[in-house]
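Recap for those who missed Tuesday's class. We walked through two folding examples back to back. For each one, the amino acid string is listed first and its predicted structure tokens come directly after. Nothing is annotated here on purpose, so try labeling regions yourself before you check the end of the notes.
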Amino acid sequence: MEKYELDYSENIVVNDDVQNIRVRARRKGLPVILFLHGGPGVCDRHWVLEKQSALAEEYTMVCWDQRGSGKSYRPEIRDYIPTVEQFVDDVEFMLEYLTGKFGVEKVILAGHSWGTLIGTLAAYRYPDKVAAYIGQGQLVNGTKNEAESYAFCVREAQRLNDKRGMKMLEGNAPVNGVYPTRKAMMAQRDCLCKYGGESYKERKGLVGSLLIPLLKSKEYNLGEIIGYAKGALYLSDVMWKDVIGVKFDEDIKQLKVPVIITQGRHDYNTPSSVAREWFDALDAPFKKWIWFEESAHSPIKEESEKWGREVLAALKEAIG
């Protein structure tokens, strides 16, 4: 069994909300990477720790279940509608907390999907606390993102002569990134999974791609999985307009921290063409774009060995 000097889960109070973090490091005193999961509400510590624990040799890995998510789910989250700003404030708190707790000046942010939204905003606003920003499934412009994602599903349904998929998608195109109903959005995401735009190699529906790995994981018990599901459904529903309103291509044209983008060639959840256009125009002290040819939305698990290797090399190049 692997032995780590730091390997624990704990609850902390983040801006008056009890939230859970998971820490792993071979020894004390290592630089810190904070993983910002997707969703909102779709935690990923179970496969980050499974697929990327080699990083714990050189970094203190911190997996954080955000407000209303996973182990941080509380029924009280349903008493209000959280905002993007609250989550960015929570990231700021985490940066302050982690620099103090682990005695480092700055923290590396590694965002995935929704995590890239709050990660990019945090890197933009608090560069003095961010050593580098790593994006994966980079969200840039919500309206462009969903238009291209939906168009991909329609093309694939027609190409495959998937009549059920075509029926599910018909008349359910997003307007300014917003789908007509939650059912319409879930239908599009289910098609996205089946057609390889979410996971390129293992093409499963939402249940197979999200729920089954959770049930097999040792990171969450059954009660926590139920809370996970409740939080993810609620947050994605009530926050969607806020989330999809992002326009980094208009609002964030410079970051004062090193930027590393790890993007799956076949990602149509957050289409790579939209992310690449923003990246190419972005002004940053260091920029590196890394393609993953056999991945879609999550190269961290689809090409896990390559992702870990490339990220370690890019961080050494960017910050030493």
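Example two. Treat it independently of the first, because the proteins are unrelated.
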Amino acid sequence: MFNAIVNAFKVPDLRKKILFTLAIVVLYRIGAHIPAPGVNVALIAETAAQNAALGLLNLFTGGALERMSVFALGVMPYITASIIMQLLKAAIPSLEQMNKEEAGRRKITQITRYMTMGIALIEAIGMLWIFRSGVVNIEAVPWLTPVMVVGTLLVGTALIMWMSELVTQRGIGNGMSMMIFSSIVAKFIPTLIDAFARNDLMGNLVLIAVTIVALLTVIFVVIYIEEGQRRIPVQYAKRVVGRRVFGGSGTYIPLKVNGANVIPMIFASAILTIPAQLAQMMPRVDWLQEVAAFTSGPMFNPEMMAVLPWYAGWGNWLITFILIVFFAYFYTALVFNPIEISDNLRKQGGFIPGIRPGHNTTKYIEQVMNRITLPGALFLGTIAVGTSILFSVTGNGMIMQFGGTSILIMCGVALETMRQIESQLKMRNYDGFFKK
């Protein structure tokens, strides 16, 4: 591994990409510590600590949300806009046709950017409402501070979009994924120190040992599932052109067990935080408070942990599990098109041994995909719900913040980045990270 890192810095182009990516990540982390004008950071942090529903968003911004910094909205507006565009491409045939052309893809990217800014505007106004106690209005012009705060958050979102696209084009890995990865890692060490500081020396040693064992176990399971594939064999027919024989080779179609990755978790979390956010904006609506408590469990109000039994969040766990399984199948169906794969095989003279080309091939690929999606969906649901149950039993906030979702994102981004570096090294006859 260390030899691969040294070799990566020996290649000038690869070294520039790695250093460029690190520089953008450093700038992103600096911006996460610059507060917006006219805010009281102490009051903002106090409000954020009392609002457990914002924990996941604060984690994805690396603590920028609790400081109301320039990058307080993080990458979530862009991710939300990208997901909406993927749904629209599946529902609107004209968008799907545009996606097949270079000019159309550029236009879709532009629409996604505009949609990101619209979503960021709505979220900025919502954040201003939630953290209104920490905003110091200018006496001469009372409306100026809220306008400056919202404008600052919008500019920060545009900068994040620009920097992430620069990383994707000129750096290593996917820009948005790298931003989320750096945010989670930035919150890891402070949270770890805070968790250990609440125990005595012997408790710290036990906690350290348990944490290390649990992290290594979860990381092993996550990587094992992430790398899991179902390989469908494909054979190509031989073609004689003149004196040359083309085709006749064999390959396979790799179908990932967890094809949806962490998207179902993000979808389910976004839906389940809506009742909690509405309940905090309308505290006098009793039925809304009950719905929020049922869907969010003890996370809706951390003080409930002291009086409620550990199984008090069963409503949240049940709904979370069902939503994750549903969105795993839903998102996989959006991004995976068996009809298109079957048509491409037929056009290229390929076929699956024992399966007739055309409709039979499409049906076979659909059946295989549905079967392998189930264990991936159950894995995601177990990771998410298991983390919440452990938090309810122990009351340790570190478990909730750095549970399955965070580890799944970190492992996925790290593996994808290593694969890109690996491919660059192999092109230049260097040994990579993955040795057989």
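Answers for example two:
Residues 165 and 399 are 32 Å apart (CA to CA).
The beta strands are 229-236, 239-241, 244-246, 250-256, 350-351.
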